[in-house]
Records
---
Amino acid sequence: MKATATANSNIALVKYWGKRDERLILPQNSSISMTLDGLYTTTTAEFSEKHRKDEVTIDGKKVAGEELDRVVRQLNLVRRLAKTHLSAKVTSKNNFPKAAGLASSASGFAALTLAATKALGLHIEKKELSMLARQGSGSACRSIYGGFAEWVKGSHHDGSDSYAKQLAPKEHWPELAMIVSVVTAEEKKVKSRAGMSQTVANSPMYRAWLETVEEDLKNVREAIMERKFTQLGTAAELNALKMHATMHTTTPHIIYWQPETITMMKEVMQMHEEGIECYFTIDGGPQVKIVCMDKNAGKIAKRVKGMAEVEKVYVCHAGEGARLSNKELF
Amino acid sequence: MKATATANSNIALVKYWGKRDERLILPQNSSISMTLDGLYTTTTAEFSEKHRKDEVTIDGKKVAGEELDRVVRQLNLVRRLAKTHLSAKVTSKNNFPKAAGLASSASGFAALTLAATKALGLHIEKKELSMLARQGSGSACRSIYGGFAEWVKGSHHDGSDSYAKQLAPKEHWPELAMIVSVVTAEEKKVKSRAGMSQTVANSPMYRAWLETVEEDLKNVREAIMERKFTQLGTAAELNALKMHATMHTTTPHIIYWQPETITMMKEVMQMHEEGIECYFTIDGGPQVKIVCMDKNAGKIAKRVKGMAEVEKVYVCHAGEGARLSNKELF
């Protein structure tokens, strides 16, 4: 009745932006990500009669309110499958700052889903597991897989064909690196979830996002399969800028960028001009992630570390999918 | 054969962004601006047989290359009308940094056109003058008028119905203020002209810009006529963000924003939250202009002046149109 799982964060190269179903978390568009080896969440879940209600601790802090509710809803999904009403104790640890645009909800809900299903003795295939994780946090479905994953949007109303699949394992492209730097570890004012709904509802640029995302998916998918770095970086950079364009033009506008975000973007452009090929991508937060080849990662990380704005730098490569662990957190 | 004119800069509340004819400078969309009392260009033009070729001095520096060519082309237009081949000496002075996103080409070409036509003894109505100025720099056509002006895009191929007209004189709304701050007086890397063509050619967001600009025009026009400040600010802010969204998503991307731009935008949002109603607008450069009511202008200017990034602050109101002057520059 107790299990521990670890899942890595993933960074989208073609972003998930916009839901067609808020409750089931069905996306408006498919997305593609790289699972990162450097950033992960470990979660222990225990179901027992001794727990009178669900109790959740994240990074040493008991959570309440909306944050607790989201975990409880996810536990309910798993309890329904396992036909049990037992309450759970859940303890979770991130090795990086949460809610700062480093996809902690992706790794968090992937780890939670795997730990909870295992604790309740369910044996679930990865595809099903990704659909369960998806209902906790959309992008979590991609963290079930290592390497490179695509979340297929699907078309069914019940979400039964909206799942993630692996495009390629981490061994496929070990030369690819992603440099994640934390420019401010503050939690965000507007959660991705709220930002997304508002954008879909009223950004005049949202339709253009949807109309062109298929081309980005094709370009990025092909670039991964054929290890075409320039194609990957160019498409990912444009895709991120398009997503932010939809946010900047929603009413009221949502501007996740901070001054440091621009400094970093300009630094990436500067390095690129100097002949160090690299690209940026930005999620719903101020953090800039840099896509580059491993041979340049050290040089780029050093440049980035030297910037006054940067608190922390992680050099990542394609990492593992969600897995069980025996390092119990309690 | 010698005349001097002064024209004020103008800042668009609905931006001109994209040409349908590069040579005649015919825009894809109509635009609306406020002519500013604080920022202006004075130009003296003299045609004479003693000048062997056109000679142009701006802010004490002789200009050459593309900058000279643009002035010569404008002088050619005027010479054609006056049926003369005389060369000219032109001296021009801005009271603010040029080419830093403060619309120096708008005031500059408006002043040049008025000075040159007058020097050659042409008597031209404002509407015609605006069409001449337009061919030098699109937005210059709006600086012919004081107060608030609309540049009607027109539909003719020869540009004969693409001119500016006054929506309201400066006396109509003296309570409206615009605070212009220079966050960096560097000249821009990508000129608006080049940025514009590229955006029209390949930004996936450009169509949405065109599809929604009519609504912005309607909102801003009505807000000016009925002095509805909230409506004006909201529409202008969204319009500016939409323009930048088209630039951010063109390939290669054009990002005029600097870290200081974001700092200023956030400061405007912060003041607004604190109950000081104000809005930002941003042109093709890093400068942030703040639209506010005069009663708050002092308070806002003080806040802005206190920011480390700000080099200079101008508090402007609606200003005069282009006019002749007897303060010759040589």
---
Amino acid sequence: MNKDSYEIEPIGTIHSELKTRQEAPNQGCEGAPEAWIDLNPEFAEGLEGISAGCDLILITWLHRARRDVLKVHPRRDPTRPLAGVFATRSPDRPNPLGLHQVRVLEINGARIRVGPLEAIDGTPLVDIKPLLPRSANA
Amino acid sequence: MNKDSYEIEPIGTIHSELKTRQEAPNQGCEGAPEAWIDLNPEFAEGLEGISAGCDLILITWLHRARRDVLKVHPRRDPTRPLAGVFATRSPDRPNPLGLHQVRVLEINGARIRVGPLEAIDGTPLVDIKPLLPRSANA
């Protein structure tokens, strides 16, 4: 059994008008606003090749999530039967990583405007990846 | 600037015939084999609702990757110009998280057979998410 652990260091922070989990839609395409990413300047070099119009996958650390939960009601709907967290996109899970597909709207140095994004204000960003064509892996 | 750090605890391990980074294709759909996931039994309850035929996104910790690199040659091709790691799917990046879309082939308790998967043998698994329909976020 794998009992090692690894340290994640945020590369930046999400700035959003969404201030609480309650305000945030379940997914970006469900009415989420635009947001700014403030990348820590030491990582700005890693953005080379990204420009407005690119589709990206952001990986965040959902810092308000519970890590001790293995069953949830899907889509926060108490009338739905409990499901395993790995069968849902609930933020509550052992390693609360968020996956968000966004479009780049503007880049200004180490600041990136993206949308739509359902992550709340202050969410740490841990990775950025290009969206691959549908024929490749997600 | 965000200077906190967070601890990732693997939920399981990938078992694959791929033993080195050199053997592994860049993406699962480029000829990767099937693999077994051994989930740590304490997390097995979180799988409820997942069955053979489901498409999942696995998030792994690419334990052989370099974390001190911000520019790479895309697709390990030295003839291609250097690009920022966030514009590529290189395993080398500040937080070496891997994203892998796979199909569930078989579930046997806390063991899951999936494919195709380009992660190498011994790679720690950190999260499992359902693939959302194309209209939702990746």
